[in-house]
Amino acid sequence: MISKIKIFFSSLFIVAVAFLTSCESNFKDVQKINVANFAPVGEADTVNLKYTDSGKIKAIMVSPKMLDFGNVSFPYIEFPKGIDVTLFDPNNKKSFIRSDYAIRYKETDVIDLQGNVKITSDDGKILETTQLYYDQKREWFFTEKKCKLTLGPGNIFYTTGFDASRDFKDINGQAFFGEGQADEF
């Protein structure tokens, strides 16, 4: 009888040890599942999007790469290889935007354009800077970075801090300097 009890407990001990070791590896796998990998939920190459409203094209955006991080607490879409955007106003006049990098924050509808940012309006006005924000709801550009604003031939200004309407009809700067005064920055 004692040997049967020893065999039973020995067998039970072996099964318990085997169970615990197998659970350990499964537990580690379960822990790995719960660790959130910071990866996009969507990824696209060679993107060409057309935004329409009431049957009219409002904007065309082209980018070689798009990453959708809609799975994070403050969702955004990243364009790590830059974007080219054409905006259309109600009179079908165009503005062109180009940057080396961009992020569009979904909750605020603000786009952060970075690196060689250049905006060209339909009437030839050009804005160049290193970083610029665009508020899609208000259709308003703004930055605190240094900017170069070309309003026409021989009509070049520099400023630190800038905001303007999408069509550049309303322009505000903290301090404007003419072309010859640019070295005062």
TrEMBL record:
Pfam families in UniProt: LptC
NCBIfam families assigned: LptC_YrbK (TIGR04409)
InterPro entries tied to this protein: LipoPS_assembly_LptC-rel, LptC
Species assigned in the record: Flavobacterium qiangtangense
Protein name as annotated: LPS export ABC transporter periplasmic protein LptC
